[in-house]
Amino acid sequence: MNLNKKKLLAIRTLKVGKKRIVFLQPRLDEIKEAITKQDIRDLQKEGAILVKEIKGKKKVEKRNKRSPGNIRKKVNKRKQDYVIMTRKLRKYAAEMKKQGRLSKEEVVDIRKKIRNKVFRSKAHLKEYIGGLRK
C-alpha cells in the first residue's frame, strides 16, 4: 500500500518533518481513507497517526542570545588611535599639495612615512615639512 500522498498531507497539516510522522500498522486502512486535512487531524487525535518527538540539540531550549545587531565589537584602542592619526596626517598632506607647498613626489614619500608611523603628531609632520622647504 503506497501512502506517500497521505504522508505528504500529514506533513502539511501537522507542520512537522517527514521522519517525525508514523502511521500505525493496524489502522492503515483508516489512514488510506483520509482525504482532507481535517481527517488527518482527527486520526492524530485518535492515535492512528503519531508524531515523534524532536531528537538531539534542537529539543534543548535555545539560550537567550543577543542578536548580532546588538553585539558591540571592541575595537583595539591602539588601532583606533592609528586610524585617527593617519587620516588627520593624510588630510593635512593633501591640503599642502593642493596649496602648492608640496610636490606630488613629496606627498607620496610623506604618505609612505605616515603609513609606517614615522610621525607622532601633526606638529611633527609640520616640522618635517618645514625641514623639506629649507
* Level-1 CATH class name of the largest domain: Mainly Alpha
What is the rounded Rg? 36 Å
The low-confidence runs, each spanning 5 or more residues with pLDDT under 50, are none
Structural class comes to mainly alpha
Could you tell me the CATH topology label of the largest domain.
Non-ribosomal Peptide Synthetase Peptidyl Carrier Protein, Chain A
Q: Give the fraction of residues assigned to helices.
A: 55-70%
Largest sheet entry: 2 strands, antiparallel
Number of helices: 6
What are the secondary-structure elements, in order, as H or E? HEHHEHHH
Report on this structure:
The chain has 134 residues and is mainly alpha-helical. The protein has two domains: 4-54, 50s Ribosomal Protein L19e, Chain O, domain 1 (Orthogonal Bundle); 77-133, Orthogonal Bundle (Non-ribosomal Peptide Synthetase Peptidyl Carrier Protein, Chain A), CATH 1.10.1200. The chain is built from six helices and two strands, in the order H-E-H-H-E-H-H-H. It has a two-stranded antiparallel ribbon. The model has no long low-confidence stretch (mean pLDDT 88).
